[in-house]
Each structure stands twice: as structure tokens, then as C-alpha cells.
Amino acid sequence: MFQKEKERIWEKHRPCIEMLAKVNNSSVFVAEYQTRYWFLSDNFSIFGYNSEVIHSQNIAPDFLETRIHPDDYIVMLATQRNLFDYLESIPLGERKNYKHIYELRARNAENVYMRFIVQQQILELNEEGRPWLLLGIIDISPDIAMLNHLKLRIINYRTGETISFPINGKTSGIELSVREKEVLELARKGMMSKEISDTLSISIHTVNKHRQNIMQKMNAANVLEAIDYARKLGLLD
């Protein structure tokens, strides 16, 4: 999808999102999945961000993720991939009817962990029918007791149906071999397969085989996505 088309679609949603942010005391955001934020409401000051940062045009993709408790973030990251795979099993015309609700720990402006409820729903799908533009609403949980694990519910807001969804364990379960880590580290430095082959004194075929295994383990579409995922899971130094 070209950038101008993305901007046109966002402008279609903008008035409703801005109105929602004005009448809602929650922290409201619109994000392009794993890419960028299109909108952040002023209420993100609860996480310690000032208006200059909130309205910046160069907000980092991990703007919110850095506030989430590390244990909850690892579980959320792994579970979210399975969640979106599950959504693909739903008929295309019904995928926007589902809202997924996380309950997790995140740091507030005072760097104290609090319990938050994060609701997300799909605004737009891409050409492959996968989530592209997401609406998120974040609230402080009314349950002040601190949970020690992430919770997730899926709700069809058209029918009211609630679906139980399995939560992955405390770790992603992904393990890379020593050689796979070496290949991924060199790829992160911008090396191509031939350069990695020369550096590690292995064949290009072996390098490409390692890259293929890495992407398969990570369920990644490309090496850049695998690098980002591995970095977030702490698999790379």
C-alpha cells in the first residue's frame, strides 16, 4: 500500500478519532502495526510523555512498549503473533468485529508499575487481510491488585461473544543456535549473505539456510522483521 493511500485512509478516520480522544479520558492511539503511530491523545502524559513528544512526527515504534513490564511484554509479543494468525481464520468480512483486550503492567509517569487495560480493534486490513491500522484505548484497571501475568480476552463487539485465547508462557519459547545468532547479528550490521559467508568462513548456501531457519522460528516475513523480534525478546546482545 502506497504512502499516499495510507494517508487518505487515515484522514477518513481522523475526525472520529480526534472526537473520541476529546470526550474520552482514556489514552487513545492509532497505530500502523509494528511500523508507526498515526495518532496519540494528550492523555499519554500518564506515562510520563509531554505534549512535545506526543505530537512529534517521529515517534518511535516502541513508544509504548518501553513502558510495559518486561515479563508482560515478552508474553504479549509472542501471543499477539498467534492472535493475528487466529484472526486470519475468521471470515474476511468479520475480522473488524473483534476487539482484543489485554490486562498488563506498565510504568506510569512516576516509573511505578500500575495495572492497565489495553483495548485494541482493527480499523483497516491490508491487501492480504491482515491487521494494518489499529485503534487502541488504554485505561487504568479498576482492580488495583497487581497481577503477576498478562491477561487476554477476545470479544466480538457485534455479538457480545467472548473467546478464550491461550496465553503463551513467560518466555517466547524461541531459541536460536549460536551460529544463527551470529548470522542474525551480522545481518543486523547490514551484511549481505556473501559478506556473512566470508566473515564466518561458511558457504552462502549455509548462510541462507540459517536465515531461512531464523525466519521460520520467528514466523517473520523477512530478516529485518526477525532482527526486530529477536531484539525485543532479548535474543540479540
Radius of gyration over C-alpha positions, nearest whole angstrom = 19 Å
Terminal Cα separation, in Å?
33 Å
Mean pLDDT metric: 86
The share of residues in extended strands comes to 15-25%
Low-confidence stretches: none
Main sheet record = 7 strands, antiparallel
**Which percent range fits the helix content?**
25-40%
- Tell the overall outline: globular
The spatial strand order of the largest sheet comes to 2-1-5-4-3-6-7
Secondary-structure-based class equals alpha+beta
Number of helices: 7
Order of helices and strands: HEEHHEEEEEHHHH
The counted number of beta strands is 7
Layout of SSEs?
Layout: H1 3-23, E1 27-32, E2 36-40, H2 51-54, H3 70-87, E3 98-107, E4 113-125, E5 131-140, E6 151-156, E7 162-164, H4 178-188, H5 193-200, H6 204-218, H7 223-232
Antiparallel strand pairs: 1-2, 1-5, 3-4, 3-6, 4-5, 6-7
Description:
With 237 residues, this protein is an alpha+beta fold. The chain is built from 7 helices and 7 strands; from the N terminus they run αββααβββββαααα. The chain is globular, with a radius of gyration of 19 Å. The mean pLDDT is 86.
Summarize the structure.
With 237 residues, this protein is α+β, with helices and mostly antiparallel strands.
Structure keywords:
237 residues; alpha+beta; seven-stranded antiparallel β-sheet; 37% helix
